[in-house]
Design a protein that fits this description.
By secondary structure, the protein is mainly beta. 10% of the residues lie in helices and 39% in strands. The longest helix is centred in the N-terminal third of the chain and has 12 residues, at 12-23.
């Protein structure tokens, strides 16, 4: 029912069929993709690494293309088929509109940094943008203050008085219901703890923990134009960091998308399914000319 609400499946029966298939996944298989789906954990903290946004066509062989001006990115989403929205921490926590061709624009910059980092943007109907402001790992407050808030950008500003307190740090805001009232989010897992899917109601200001399901994860990251899902997981079989692969509807490897020692995380499909963007780890300091 939740998958139908967010438009991830057209027929609720599909969910039950996929759930049954998830239980039939065998033991260890190529690239550990089934294990990644069953035991997915969130990526490493942004305080440890530097990322930029890259774009690629997973069906082709061309190398990924870096998106200028996205160094220090902490999250990325599609505003429309030709424009990205990016959260970043370079020179302060901020929200950016990034056209694939053209100059970027700063939509919002934190006027009073308070230890919260902008992350996990998501475009909503009506020109609004949801994103998260959260404390980095190891920055929990001794006073018990919340670790994360959902903020809403609209009409050129955000109103902190309307922030929604979240029970966990967020990895990605995945999608919204057609009316923009409900948001589906994926939280960060900690250590051996699995992440959880959260259903956030903007009108009621409530957060429902939906738990974790490999089928849910697989469907949430499925291509809009094909049955393949993009899976982000930590490749512990080799020294390859976080990799991106394409998996079929049974969790079996189709092809590697990115496999290198550096981390490639948080993939998002272009609305037409022709390409995807993701965060790619880069060197922590700019090279001198």
């Amino acid at each position: 029912g939740v998958l139908t609400l967010f438009g991830l499946v057209d027929n609720p029966c599909t969910l039950w069929q996929a759930t049954l298939e998830a239980f039939r996944l065998g033991a260890c298989s190529q690239s550990g993709v089934p294990q990644a789906l069953r035991r997915h954990r969130g990526p490493l903290g942004f305080e440890e690494k530097t990322f930029e946004v890259r774009r690629l066509d997973p069906a082709g062989d061309a190398p990924p293309v870096s998106i200028d001006g996205t160094r220090g990115a902490t999250g990325v989403a599609w505003l429309n088929a030709q424009t990205l929205v990016v959260t970043a921490t370079q020179a302060g926590s901020k929200l950016l509109r990034m056209p694939l061709e053209g100059e970027p624009a700063v939509l919002w910059k934190d006027p009073a940094p308070d230890g919260l980092t902008a992350a996990a943007p998501l475009a909503l109907p009506g020109g609004k943008i949801a994103f998260v402001r959260q404390r980095l790992s190891g920055q929990e407050s001794a006073e018990g203050r919340p670790v994360a808030f959902l903020s809403l950008w609209a009409d050129g500003r955000i109103d902190p008085a309307h922030d929604i307190v979240l029970p966990f740090r967020i990895q990605q805001l995945l999608t919204s219901s057609p009316d923009g009232r409900q948001i589906l989010a994926l939280s960060l897992g900690i250590g051996e703890n699995l992440p959880s899917f959260l259903q956030i109601d903007l009108a009621e200001r409530t957060v429902q923990n939906l738990g974790y399901s490999p089928t849910f994860y697989q469907v949430a990251f499925r291509s809009p134009k094909a049955g393949a899902s993009v899976v982000s997981f930590e490749d512990v079989s080799t020294d390859q960091g976080w990799d991106l692969v394409l998996a079929d509807d049974k969790g079996r490897l189709i092809k590697d998308v990115q496999a290198r020692k550096q981390d490639d995380i948080l993939p998002v499909w272009q609305p037409d399914g022709k390409s995807l963007v993701y965060l790619a780890e880069v060197e922590g300091k700019e090279k001198k000319p």
